[in-house]
Specification:
18 strands, binds 2-acetamido-2-deoxy-beta-D-glucopyranose, alpha/beta, hydrolase, glycoprotein, Arylsulfatase, C-terminal domain, about 500 residues, 10-stranded mixed sheet
């Protein structure tokens, strides 16, 4: 009797498993990263800039309103691709400069490696900025089947050239087969959108798709085709007007990409994540008001980011999520969504946030190390001798509370230029020049107006203890001097590997 039953049971089990697989086809995952896009530069945050496509996607999905990135480019990208804090990759200090022999360490797989291992087609378009001095660091050797974009951190939007330290300009635009010499005059907001759409159109739908589209928009230099700037004639400030036009290209590009996914029949099975890499640069048209500070600072304006999740595969819509989520969380979250494995990575600092995003479950993250940068110029004297040295630039979030030490950079509140008389610029007045400790309850005071460090000395000591313990796990900083062999003049006038 048993002998007859076993094959039958097996057949029933098989059909159940296959049936589930059909319904639970793994989603396409599209990650769109904007560059230097400020908190006050998206329509749904009350911006003067129009972003109808981004607003629609966000309101159809989940807006992340307690979402954090890092204060500058390489750090955010390194954490996105590795799931690990900078203190664990050696990238604590600054960006990777084009002339530096440096890169995201090869000792742990990237998100793309993991997606590829899970059977995804993996493609990247846009800005890399995670090192390129050796072949091993190039995107197509770090998990991407294909790549089109630029390797350094910023360049001209039209001729795609970037200066070497001698002030001469060299091409930085390539794919895995070599430099792209013929795209001069093709504005990168359009070029990268078209390349991303090419990926979608060429995609074989029998495989799930992972695409990382890292726009140049809206980083400096302020360059934009005239028709986009003309929409903002009413903005008198030149930088803000050009920047607003640049945001409109970005918004239109994401709209076009979404349409291409729909036309290809992929949208219903797609999860799209949109994120900035850091706060807006107020000297280049960006804005983070009412948050304090801007790009490159440890104030909320530096890294309280714009972000949302959308796509036809998202089970919820119209949600505003206020759980603590960090850019390092995407690694386990998205690899988990792809049913990939997290084996072989160095210990991750990110946590899987899918239940938080898709069901509103409480975040598994209560602690967030913003950074510890031992190379940043120190300020003042240490508050205590037996715990973390407060002259060092660092910041940590524990629950509601945020502690900043060292020099967090300019902490003024800067409203968008000329928008309204009601919004006043408020300068960062340091009570003493050597001040190096601030404590805020970010939940109660997200704009950092009320420093609690004098009122809550025990809380300060507790959070210093967190920094102290994080610091014990830090690896040495990788920040090598410029290498003259990086000169693109030595290699046909094109930026690329030199070792
Ligand atoms: C540049 O060359 C590539 C590869 O040959 C081609 O696909 C692309 O369309 C060309 N672009 C322009 C603007 O001609
Ligand atoms: C979006 O598509 C429209 C219609 O094809 C095109 O005119 C526009 O230039 C595209 N925008 C971007 C940013 O690629
Ligand atoms: C992780 O597991 C997969 C599948 O089990 C295997 O193919 C891969 O080699 C493993 N990766 C590492 C880095 O151990
Ligand atoms: C720390 O040590 C220095 C040198 O020993 C001493 O002068 C200073 O008072 C100490 N500071 C505190 C806060 O204990
Ligand atoms: C962090 O740890 C390093 C290595 O143990 C130590 O030299 C340094 O003083 C610590 N930094 C702070 C700010 O406590
Ligand atoms: C901070 O930035 C504001 C705005 O640019 C500027 O007016 C102010 O002088 C700066 N403060 C310091 C201390 O640099
Ligand atoms: C921080 O503010 C929140 C919201 O007002 C409050 O619930 C919480 O108790 C505060 N935490 C501390 C430690 O003061």
């Amino acid at each position: 009797m048993m002998k007859l039953w076993l094959p039958l049971l097996f057949a029933v089990w098989l059909s159940a498993v296959c049936g589930r697989d059909n319904n639970q086809k793994r989603p396409n995952i599209i990650f769109v990263l904007a560059d230097d896009y400020g908190f006050n530069d998206i329509g749904y945050h009350g911006s003067q800039i129009f972003t109808p496509n981004l607003d629609k996607l966000a309101s159809d999905g989940v807006k992340l309103e307690n979402y954090y990135v890092q204060p500058i480019c390489t750090p955010t990208r390194s954490q996105l691709m590795s799931g690990r804090y900078q203190i664990h990759t050696g990238l604590q200090h600054a960006i990777i400069w084009p002339e530096q022999p440096n890169g995201l360490p090869l000792d742990s797989p990237t998100m793309a490696d993991k997606m590829k291992e899970a059977g995804y087609a993996t493609h990247m378009v846009g800005k890399w900025h995670l090192g390129f001095y050796k072949d091993e660091y190039l995107p197509w050797n770090r998990g991407f089947d294909s790549y089109f974009g630029y390797l350094t951190g910023s360049e001209n939007y039209n001729n795609h050239k970037r200066t070497f330290m001698d002030g001469k300009w060299y091409l930085d635009l390539c794919d895995q087969d070599g430099p792209a010499h013929n795209e001069s005059g093709h504005y990168s907001g359009h070029l990268f959108t078209e390349k991303a759409i090419d990926v979608v159109q060429a995609h074989d739908p029998s495989k799930p798709l992972f695409m990382y589209l890292a726009y140049q928009s809206v980083h400096s230099p302020l360059q934009v085709p005239k028709p986009y700037e003309r929409k903002y004639k009413h903005i008198k400030d030149r930088n803000r007007r050009k920047y607003a036009g640049m945001v409109s290209v970005l918004d239109e590009g994401v709209g076009n990409l979404t349409q291409a996914l729909k036309d290809k029949g992929l949208w219903d099975n797609t999860i799209l994540v949109f994120s900035t890499d850091n706060g807006g640069q107020v000297y280049e048209g960006g804005n983070n008001f009412p948050l304090r500070g801007w790009k490159a600072s440890l104030w909320e304006g530096g890294f309280h980011g714009v972000g949302f999740v959308s796509g036809g595969r998202l089970p919820v819509s119209g949600v505003v999520n206020r759980e603590l989520i960090h850019v390092s969380d995407w690694f386990p979250t998205l690899v988990g969504l792809a049913q990939g494995s997290l084996n072989g990575t160095k210990p991750l600092d990110g946590v899987d946030q899918w239940d938080t995003i898709s069901q509103g479950a409480p975040s598994k993250r209560t602690v967030l190390l913003h950074n510890i940068d031992p190379l940043h110029p120190r300020v003042g004297v240490p508050l205590y001798n037996d715990t973390f040295d407060t002259t060092v630039r660092a910041a940590v979030r524990v629950g509601h509370m945020k502690l900043i030490t060292g020099n967090p950079s300019n902490g003024s509140w800067v409203p968008p230029p000329g928008e309204s008389q009601a919004l006043k610029f408020v300068s960062d007045r340091r009570t003493s020049p050597g001040k190096n400790v601030w404590l805020f309850n970010i939940t109660a005071d997200p704009t950092e107006h009320h420093d609690l460090s004098d009122q809550m000395p025990d809380m300060v000591r507790t959070l210093l203890g967190y920094l102290q313990r994080f610091n014990e796990t830090a690896v040495p900083v990788r920040y090598p001097p410029y290498d003259p062999r990086s000169n693109p003049a030595l290699r046909g006038g094109v930026w690329g590997p030199w070792e």
